[in-house]
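Here is one chain, start to finish.
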Amino acid sequence: MNNQFSNLIDTLKAHLKENKITYKELATRLKCSESSLKKMFSGKDCSVMKLINICKQVNLEFSDLVAISKNKNIEDIRFMKREVEEFFIKNMKHFNYFILLYLYRMTPTQIKEKYNINDKLTFKILKKLDELKLIELLPYNNVKVRKFGLETWTGEGPLMKKLRKEWAINVLNNSLASNKQTHKNELRHYQLTPFKLTVSEANKFIKDSKKLYDEYFIKSNSRYDSKNENLVILNSLLCFSPELLVDEEILKM
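Its structure:
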């Protein structure tokens, strides 16, 4: 088991002990058996999503769990506070600009040139991001982006609820698109396949897929601040649905 993942589990165990929450009580909250819960905590049947779900049941933010596991101050690592999310919901231009700075590591100059943003608007956005303590605004519109891990925003607040469907559609559309940059086309993949499986086979398929997904999530997260130019951004969407791929309303007409 990955050391980082193991540390998260150990930290969560300590939190349960400190708050006097027993496996039996937690299993009841999660609506699972105590033996299944113990198996999760052994690392044999656990995932990032399961940890996030457990955190919800014990009033612990996943980002706080990560911070504690790394012996960091929670306020230093938690950046997407509720008031920040609420501001971004009303000011999506600021949010998208921040994503370019934070996630894609673009500079204000690069953003200005690519999206034709004038100096006045650039300064206005950067000043607000500085006030929100997301960046440090330096002279001549240079910035220092605070260091956050990808895991510090689990995306369960109002902003993610607004963006979840929009981002999913964007990822699907982009996976179907073609681009003059052939190296990007090599990283596009779309595959929709209806399976006919037993319930146990379906559960195993989902479990195995999520396990692989978590493995690459942790690997990616460990490289977030890497300067390796060979690393690329790859957006992914993992989803399963038991519904039939037909429009039932049309059939009823």
